[in-house]
Amino acid sequence: MPQMTVCPSCAEPLEPEDVFCGACGINLAQSPATPRGGTGDFVLAAPAHLLLDEPSGPPCAQCDGRIAADGYCDTCGAARPNPRDHVERCLEGVAGVSDRGHRHHRNEDFFAVAATSLPDGASAVVAVVCDGVSSATRPDEASQTAADTASESLLTALEAGTDPTRAMHDALLDAARAVDALADGRAPEPGTNSPACTCVSAVAAGGAVTIGWIGDSRAYWIPDDREAAEPYRLTEDDSWAARMVAAGLMEEAEAYADPRAHAITGWLGADAGELDPHTVTFTPHVPGVVLVCTDGLWNYAEAATALADAVPADARTEPLSAARDLVQFALAGGGHDNITVAVLPFPPAPGRRPEAPPTPTLVDLPPTV
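Structure (tokenized):
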């Protein structure tokens, strides 16, 4: 390190071997210095707090340092966490959590939750969960595009008075077209397919719940009183295993134990072929919650009754806490995949307000330079 004769922060005299200033404690190895071309000397810059009237970078998750403008900690060198690694959202009547999991290097899931009003003034709540196909190009972009598009399409249609079943069907097709467009003019990455994802959506409006899906992301109904009413799965997978079971060729347990079980037969993407979105509407007769989730959760509790055991008893009144608990359940089981779950209470607990301010998702954050 070039010799410094005075501290750049407080002007305390320094010895050549000093690493920290004895007066102010500044780390001299990291103090700003500007080389002068050709001489080998250094001109000490003014202290950072005198150069910029701006707050320091965000704290590092690994140490007590700060994340610099280049995205790395100025103390330990750790990279800034991707804001999409863990996302939480909570609105009146719906909450969701998404986590990267333990094994994946990025989160390829995405979700959207929203609320609006119908023309008659009644409320409508929307949850959309998408899972990027890892063997495809830009799966994280595909899932975000699909979730944002489907959510916006649903809100627009519901506000205009469109029947929820029709709104759901059209929203899935809108999402599919948006994902298709990601492939326009861009060749897939070597060894991968066009951008693709699965999608499952739920709308609670007019005293009923409408579910729509393409792929193997799922929706479940979990009643508050599980002795008085049975939990059940609301969706049927577009997958190899589901086809084997439907055709009577294999028992469900045998099919889902097969290595080919999770090969999907329906998805959103330019190479998906003609789509026929699935929709179902039901009227719950007891209080409970609708869960919409990716296989990163249901892989650890495939049956509705098994998944219900992991759902807290107060899920309807504490949906964000329930979503967090379910993500932790999957992480404790191994966290081999990205995990996303949205919890939609039905009917919403009276007088409930959001349990926490929404955590910004990637699209809410300012762009990094």
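The CA atoms of residues 9 and 67 lie 20 Å apart. The mean pLDDT is 83.
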